[in-house]
């Protein structure tokens, strides 16, 4: 074998080894990325409501009540301190949204809810249920709503009865309820104005 041929063979061998290492690295990155996506990875709480799945969800969270079920009727407290319940809003479609002031995606979607309420509030009730038992202070919800001048219906789930009955372990969580009180659909993660309009057209 000539000296030039030997040099060429060494170059080919080196390139082959380099290609193999690169392929292994790319495969490892792909596997790690796929595993992160399948297990949830890190939740994006940047407030971009166009993204799906940006709710804050603990490991092993249940998906909640099923579509077609009767919406559980639970007592809740208004911001004025009066007691009411979910059935009080029966008779027209309801978007029931469970939220908390410490949840960035919740706070980012609320201006979208306000915009929807101002346009379609006569046809669909926007009912924001604060997960009050998770707040540092029971006054947090009222202070936040007053500060932001939100006018949609806001109530307090002070003893966690509603969240527990709805089996809600992520926020924000929204339930789209038909006028007869049945669950039409649900969404975990923030809503956009356009998404609410789309769902409104499906409600009865």
Automatic annotation (TrEMBL):
The organism's superkingdom is given as: Bacteria
InterPro entries (UniProt xref):
AhpC/TSA (IPR000866), Thioredoxin-like_sf (IPR036249), Thioredoxin_CS (IPR017937), Thioredoxin_domain (IPR013766), Thioredoxin_ResA/DsbE_sf (IPR050553)
Chain ranges passing through the membrane = 12-30
Cite the Thioredoxin domain residue spans from the record: 65-204
Q: Which UniProt keywords apply?
A: Disulfide bond, Membrane, Transmembrane, Transmembrane helix
Q: What name does UniProt use for this protein? A: Cytochrome C biogenesis protein
Specify the species: Salimicrobium humidisoli
């Amino acid at each position: 074998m000539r000296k030039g041929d030997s040099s060429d063979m060494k170059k080919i061998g080196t390139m082959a080894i380099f290609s193999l290492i690169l392929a292994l690295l790319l495969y490892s990155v792909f596997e790690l990325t796929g595993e992160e996506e399948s297990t949830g990875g890190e939740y994006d709480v940047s407030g971009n409501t166009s993204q799906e799945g940006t709710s804050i969800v603990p490991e092993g969270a249940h998906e909640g009540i099923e579509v077609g079920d009767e919406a559980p009727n639970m007592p809740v407290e208004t911001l004025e301190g009066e007691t009411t319940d979910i059935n009080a809003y029966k008779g027209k479609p309801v978007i029931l949204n469970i939220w908390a002031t410490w949840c960035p995606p919740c706070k980012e979607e609320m201006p979208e809810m306000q915009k929807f309420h101002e346009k379609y509030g006569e046809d669909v009730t926007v009912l924001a249920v604060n997960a009050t038992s998770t707040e540092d202070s029971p006054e947090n919800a009222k202070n936040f709503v007053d500060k932001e001048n939100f006018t949609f219906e806001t109530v307090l789930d002070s003893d966690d009865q509603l969240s527990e009955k709805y089996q809600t372990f992520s926020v924000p969580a929204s339930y789209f309820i038909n006028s007869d009180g049945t669950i039409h659909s649900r969404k975990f993660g923030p809503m956009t104005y356009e998404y609410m309009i789309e769902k409104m057209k499906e409600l009865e």
